[in-house]
Amino acid sequence: MDSGAAVTARLWVAAVVLLVPTILALRGRWGLLRRNLGMILAYGLLAVAATQLFYFQAVAVMDVGIALLVEYTAPIAVLLWLWLRRGERPSRKSVIGAVIAFVGLVLMLDVVTGADVNVPGILWALGAMVGAATYFVLSARADTGLPPIALAGSGLLLGAVALALAGAVGVLPIAWTTDDVSYRFGSVPWFAPVLAMGVIATALAYGLGIASTRMLGSRLASFVALAEVVAALVFGWLLLGQLPDLLQALGGVLVLVGVVVVKLGEPVAPPP
Known about the structure:
The chain is mainly α. Helix content is 74%, strand content 2%.
């Protein structure tokens, strides 16, 4: 599959999986969709469709973990957005945590050693970063009345429809094959990774992600999600043989340290 086909298939599988839960969550409250139409459009088109498409374009020319860590500079963008837009000035510890995490990301990118950096890949990943920051900010809104599963389901369905239409009119190139998919451990049928991407990495991930972001807030949730970068490095090694060097591993440790420091800098939430 090329990037367009992979993302479109992923979103359609996830949208179908969440269709019934979304309908049940909105039963008797369909007016919520109309009142939150603007947010759903932004979520489905930018936070879901564009983010996934840009990321898949990036991993087509870059290592999985490296592309993801560029995308996950999103927490710093979230900090700046909340500060400039809402006046939510971050604490000193949060700023220090952001700096530590950013240094870790730079080390993981391996630019300090003069490595050959794929500029188009980084630009695609930065586009995914904008979408990821949008995801965290929109997911944190608890005043919409939309259940997390309904926002995830409606956003995924909208993103899937948008990508399918873009492919149908020729704006988005879509090509696929039914050949087996090769990994480090061997080959699997083509539908195995498609189902895994759609069910585990999309439907489950977006549903849990929205729920947790509403509990933690967009700032903290975006930093906790940086652990996904380390997980991507591990799975990139297990499945694809993409092993980070010692400097990149040090960067991963700094990212986790930055997450802890940001957590310490968050105000204590009142008990529920």
